[in-house]
Design brief:
The termini are far apart. The chain is built from eleven helices and three strands, in the order H-H-E-H-H-E-H-H-H-H-E-H-H-H.
Length: 227
C-alpha cells in the first residue's frame, strides 16, 4: 500500500479525539494571525469562513473552540469583536456531506471526513454515525452554538450573522470594521455530486433538528448557553 493509502486508512479509522488533536495542532497557530485584526472570526464549518478570511486577506483561523487555545491567546482574542456566521444546521450537514466526497477524492483525508465519504446515502450516514457524542466531538459537525458559547465563556462578545443573509450582512460588517474595499468570493463551494443521495427522509430530518436544536434556537433568537 502506498504512503497516501496508509495515511487515508489511518484517518478513516482513527478515533475522533485523535483527528481533532491533529487538526488543532495544525491549525491553532492560525488564530494568532488574527491578533492584530479588528475582529476575530469564529470559523464554524461550511458557513462562509474561508470567504470572509480571503476578503480580509488572512488565513482562516480553523474550526477551533476558543477555550482550546492557549489562555494568553484566548484573552487577546476575547477582547476584540468576534464574528460568527450561523447556518441552518440541516443545510450545513448536507453541505458537509457533499464536501466530504469532493475533498476525499481530490486530496488526502486529513480533514477527518474519510469515514463520512464512505457513505453514498446521507440517510445511511445519519443512521450509522450521527449521534450527540459524534456531533459534539467532531469539529466539522460540532453545533455552531458550541463554538459561540465557548467564545462567550472566554469573555468574548459575539456578533452573529445568519448565513441566509451572508453577502449583505457580512459586507456591512466588514465595512464597519474598516474594510472599505472587499470582494466576497465563494470558497469551498459544495457542488452537486450525481452519485450521492442527499434527499433526507422525514425521520432523518426530524432527528437532525433534534440533534441541532440549540442551533435552531440560536437562529430564531431564543438561545441560551446550552453546553
Amino acid at each position: 500500500m502506498s504512503f497516501l493509502g496508509i495515511k487515508n486508512a489511518f484517518y478513516k479509522n482513527a478515533p475522533t479525539s485523535i483527528i481533532n488533536y491533529l487538526y488543532y495542532r495544525r491549525y491553532r497557530r492560525r488564530s494568532e494571525l488574527w491578533i492584530n485584526a479588528p475582529f476575530y472570526l469564529i470559523h464554524i464549518p461550511k458557513s462562509g469562513g474561508k470567504s470572509i478570511s480571503a476578503a480580509v486577506n488572512l488565513d482562516d483561523p480553523g474550526h477551533i473552540l476558543m477555550e482550546d487555545l492557549p489562555q494568553s491567546l484566548q484573552k487577546q482574542l476575547a477582547h476584540k469583536p468576534c464574528l460568527a456566521v450561523v447556518r441552518e444546521p440541516v443545510a450545513r450537514l448536507i453541505s458537509t456531506f457533499k464536501y466530504a466526497h469532493r475533498n476525499y477524492k481530490r486530496k488526502s483525508s486529513a480533514t477527518g471526513l474519510a469515514s463520512v465519504a464512505s457513505y453514498y446515502d446521507i440517510n445511511d450516514f445519519i443512521e450509522n454515525q450521527v449521534n450527540p457524542d459524534f456531533v459534539n466531538k467532531h469539529y466539522f459537525f460540532m453545533p455552531a452554538s458550541r463554538y459561540i458559547n465557548s467564545a462567550m465563556r472566554c469573555g468574548a462578545k459575539v456578533d452573529i450573522i445568519d448565513f441566509a443573509d451572508f453577502e449583505c450582512e457580512v459586507e456591512r460588517y466588514l465595512k464597519a470594521a474598516g474594510f472599505l474595499s472587499i470582494s466576497l468570493g465563494q470558497e469551498n463551494v459544495s457542488f452537486e455530486t450525481p452519485d450521492l443521495n442527499i434527499s433526507l427522509s422525514p425521520e432523518s430530518k426530524n432527528y437532525l433538528e433534534y440533534i441541532y436544536n440549540a442551533d435552531l434556537d440560536l437562529l430564531s433568537g431564543q438561545a441560551g448557553d446550552s453546553d
